[in-house]
Amino acid sequence: MKKPTPRWIAYIIGGIITACAAVVLLPPVQRLGEGDSVPLAAATLEGGQAGGAGDNVSKTGDGSDNSQDAALASAGATDGAPNSASAAENTEAAGDTQTSIPTSSPTPPPTNVPGLRCLFQSDNFADAVKNAAVFQPNGGAKITAGVVPHHLVAQTLISGLLSLAAQNPPEKAYDTVVIVAPNHAGDIADIIVSEKNWDFGGGVDCDTGIESAVLALRGKFDIAQNDQRMEEDHSASTMIPFIDYYIPGAEVAPVLVSRTLSLDDTLNFAKALYDIISQSGKRVLLLCSIDFSHYLTPDKALANGTRTIQAINSRDYAMIHSFSNSYVDSPASLIIFLKYLELTGSSLDILDHTEASAFLGGGIDSTTSYIIMAGEK
To answer: What pLDDT does residue 161 have?
Structure first.
């Protein structure tokens, strides 16, 4: 009589048959090629957010700004970075970021290419619009250029200047806003640009014509295209929501400049940028994002501001270029603004000179000052 098969052998044979059947019946695994994208769910699981671990970036321009921001944070505001847990959650959670911003929209950006994230937004944009500073132009002239802070403590000054610019009649409306702002880290190159759109609201498009023309100057100046630096430095990023609200539909062309840019190169680049804007045939607003005195008491900051205004009025470019952070955080941006006024035949109008304690109240030992200016023609 034939001996029965041991039970453990039967289990092994059954398992082998089941595995073989699975291999035959399951479809082949499709491998991702270099041009393929990872599904959103997979990307979210891998990085915690769709952007991945690399999204955890510093939201201050350079290391020296951190102490200033920390001091002001204790008073209830920071230099563009959210200052509460709920605000931080809004910044990271898709769909919540724009809840208080009247310009936001669930409509996706008009391009399939990932754009620059707007990492630095006001915690209360509606308040910036409602309480916008009121400035009056000289004789209803068109605003050709402006200087505003990127320090969001003074966000009502930003909205005030752009509200003034937006009052132009339709025939004088803007096609493009060229943003000139500091590269706070001061590395990579003297001049940095990006040709990417901004993933904000329904999408804020880049004027690639102007940006590519700036890039074409690489043989004359130290210029680099660096999307990451453009995204992570708050100096240009803070302007995007305001431009989107007050000048909807306008394209942007951000340019970051470092302190490493020599005086001669600053003056020559100002002329080159003016030529690019003129040859574009577009109606352009030059918006320079500049904070002035840093880390001083309010009285000392305003005193330094008065000295800066004297250098501005006398067009003392050498003096301006020599100024430290105790006077201005981007001498090159300020010089480019003043040269642009000269080249366009615009008059200078100094609209306001103030500092952070005017917004936060007294008791501040270390402040940031602001000089709001407009070029009018």
So the answer is: 98
Segments making up each domain of the chain, as ranges: 75-376
CATH code of domain 75-376? 3.40.830.10
For position 319, what pLDDT does the model report? Answer: 98
Cα–Cα distance between 61 and 151 in angstroms, integer? 11
Pairing relation of β-strands 191-193 and 143-148? Answer: unpaired
**Joined tokens for residue 104:** 């936001």
DSSP E strands: which ranges in the chain? 116-117, 143-148, 176-182, 191-193, 198-199, 223-225, 251-257, 284-289, 294-296, 347-355, 367-376
pLDDT at 101 (0 to 100): 34
| pTM (global) more than 0.90 | no
Using alpha carbons, select from 62, 163, 188, 49 the residue that is nearest to residue 117.
49
Asked if residues 106 and 202 have their Cβ atoms less than 8 Å apart, the reply is no
> Contact, 194 vs 226, CB < 8 A?
yes
In this prediction, the residues of the chain whose per-residue pLDDT falls under 70 are: 1-113
Neighbours of 78 (CB within 10 A): 27
pLDDT given for residue 202 in this prediction: 87
